[in-house]
Write a structure and sequence with these properties.
The protein contains five helices and seven strands, in the order αβαββαβββαβα. With 182 residues, it is an alpha+beta fold. It has one domain: Alpha-Beta Plaits, CATH 3.30.70. Strands 2-3-1-6-7 form a five-stranded mixed beta sheet, with helices on both faces. Strands 4-5 form a two-stranded antiparallel ribbon.
Length: 182
């Protein structure tokens, strides 16, 4: 595991960075993807949308400074797993989109699971609550070459919704959604 946070190609452009976490925002993610997709070679591209469990804008459980600290820590934890062709972004209040490039589909899924486990191991000291565990749920897909990034993200979000309907702290993939419909 890497110790230093990977620098984004968008570090010089504040329009493409999330001001809280200092990782890509949606615009930065799209820009990075357009730059990196040509260098993927024979690797598989996966898209995962992770959402912090029980952490919505409308149901604020923590003060803003604590919320921002949690978002920063999660972004940092994800960035520790980042490889040169990977793209991470905070694309919504409590959502992170992760685009991985791996030699196998299995490795991509394993790495997303590892990220989920790493986040679940974090402990946050919340005023008046003590040590609190934060978890994420996610939707994961292998992006077909003939599918746009936007469409892949949409599919990953559908799988995320299914994962959330079954509880918290889990990553689901396309085949889990297919098994539900049987």
């Amino acid at each position: 595991m890497r110790v230093n946070r990977k620098q984004s190609t968008n570090d010089n452009n504040p329009d493409m960075l999330d001001p809280v976490t200092e990782i890509n925002n949606y615009k930065g993610m799209i820009n990075d993807y357009s730059l990196k997709k040509r260098t993927q070679g024979s690797n598989f591209t996966s898209v995962a949308v992770l959402e912090i469990d029980n952490f919505s804008k409308s149901n604020r459980a923590f003060p803003q400074d604590v919320t921002q600290a949690i978002l920063k820590k999660i972004a940092y934890t994800i960035s520790l797993h980042q490889q040169p062709l990977d793209i991470i972004a905070r694309t919504d209040y409590n959502q992170f989109t992760i685009i991985l490039s791996r030699p196998s589909k299995e490795q991509a899924y394993k790495d997303i699971e590892l990220i989920r486990e790493s986040i679940a191991e974090l402990k946050f000291n919340i005023p008046h609550k003590g040590a609190t565990q934060i978890t994420v749920s996610g939707g994961f897909i292998i992006k077909p070459n003939n599918t746009s990034l936007e469409e892949a993200i949409k599919q990953a979000k559908e799988i995320l919704l299914y994962a959330q309907s079954l509880g918290t702290n889990k990553i689901m993939q396309t085949r889990d959604l297919a098994q539900k419909d049987m």
